[in-house]
Amino acid sequence: SKQYTEGRPSYPAELFQFIASKTPDHDLVWDVGTGSGQAAKPVSAKIYKNVIATDTSPKQLEFAIKLPNIRYQLTPPTMSITELEQNVATQSSVALHWFDLPQFYKQVKWVLKKPNGVIAAWTYTMPGINESVGAVFKPFDTVDCEPFWEPQRKLVDNKYMSIDFPFEPVDGVDNTGPFDQFVLEKVMDLDDYFTFIRSCSGYQTAKDKGVELLTDNVMDNFKVAWNEDGQSQKVARFPIYLRIAKAGN
C-alpha cells in the first residue's frame, strides 16, 4: 500500500473542476474505493466541503492523505442500506468515484435519489513515456503480465467504453462518455517507473504466486530503452477516461 501511494500519479485539477461544474451542490462527495486518497485530497481541499472516502482495504487507508474535512471509512465490499446510512450518508446529492459492483449501482441510485445527484467514474491507462520505452513495455504488459491481470482490467483496457453505466447524460453533454480530454502527468526516473509497475495489481498477483515479473533481463531492457535519449527523468502521461451521468431524480 505504501508502494501504491508512492508510485501512483496525482489527478489533474481540470478533471475535478469539470465534474464539479456538473454538480450544483458542493456540500458532500463520496469517494468510493478511495485507496490512498488520490481523489479525496483535491476534491476536499478546493471543491467540496466534506468528503466521505471509503475503501475495503485497511492497508490503503493507513497511508491515505489526512485532511480535516475528509472522513475515511473502512467498509465491506457490499453494504445494506442500513450500513450505507451508517457508513456514508442518508439519501442526498453526492458525486462519487467509481466502484464496480452490480449491487453498488443500486446503492448509488438510492444515495443519489434527490435531484442533482451525479455519478462520475474514471480510469487512467498505462503511462506513455516514449517509443523506446513503449516498445519494451508492450510485450511486458500484454505477454508477461497478462496471466496475472484480473478480468476487471479489461474495462480499463477498453477505456470504460464497455462498462455498464445505466444513467442519463448530465446537462451540457450528449452522452455519458467516456470523455478523454483529461491527462495526468508525473515526472519519473527509472526507479519511479519500476515503483509504478510494482504497484500494479498484475505484478502484485504474480508476486503472491512466487513469480517475479521484473527479472534482471526485463529490467536491463527497460534500462537500455530509458537511457537511450540521455535524459534520466521523463514525463509520463496517463490518459484519463471519464464517464459521468445523472444518477437520480
Automatic annotation (TrEMBL):
Annotated GO molecular function terms are: S-adenosylmethionine-dependent methyltransferase activity
Residue ranges of the TM segments: none
Q: What's a Pfam family in this record?
A: Methyltransf_11
InterPro entries, per the entry: Methyltransf_11, SAM-dependent_MTases_sf
Methyltransferase type domain ranges (all copies):
31-119
Name of the protein described by the UniProt record: Methyltransferase type 11 domain-containing protein
